[in-house]
UniProtKB/TrEMBL annotation:
Alphabetized GO MF terms: 2-dehydro-3-deoxy-6-phosphogalactonate aldolase activity
Family: Belongs to the KHG/KDPG aldolase family.
Subunit relationships: Homotrimer.
PANTHER family: 2-DEHYDRO-3-DEOXY-6-PHOSPHOGALACTONATE ALDOLASE-RELATED, 2-KETO-3-DEOXY-6-PHOSPHOGLUCONATE ALDOLASE
Pathway info: Carbohydrate acid metabolism
Gene3D superfamilies the record matches: Aldolase class I
Enzyme class: lyase
Protein name: 2-dehydro-3-deoxy-6-phosphogalactonate aldolase
Record EC number: 4.1.2.21
Amino acid sequence: MTREIIAILRGIRPDEAEGVTAALIRAGITRIEVPLNSPEPFVSIKRMCLLAGDRVIVGAGTVLTVEEVDELAKIGAQMVVSPDCNPEVIRATKAAGLLSYPGVFTPTECFAALRAGADGIKIFPASQLSAAGLSAIRAVLPQGTRTYAVGGVGPNDFAEWHKAGVTGFGIGAAVYKSDMTVDDVAARAHAVVTAYDAVFSA
């Protein structure tokens, strides 16, 4: 099954990129985000893309400029995730043929993102909005809008957010921290996938 889980690897180094990517694939996670405030993020992303091929959607997070989008397109990234809703970044992302997931919090930002062409919206910080908040906003969003809860949301929250109609999740520290081994990442990724499957396959 295709799981709507984006593994957020904030702080990952290029020397870890391939091992962690392989561990995530084995666990069943097929969307990977490297925030651009990580060490040498473009190097890590390029290595991940070369290793994963078409098995995984690899992209960047914390993308703030059109120039960063252009660089991501050059190295084979497929996804752009941002903490904010910047129409210029969204349009540049779509023009380059990449998936666009801008960060939003209010209905105004949600609609601005969708009008600019976003493929889905990243509810951030999700823990502050709450599942109830998403449920209220979804009542006015176009049917089929893809929503991802990111920030302060983990496996224990999956059922509540699923009930609110969320599409998926961006998972950071519950999957990866910079002091973890590949085995640590593999174990955590497996736990996240197991929790996701228990809720979304029920």
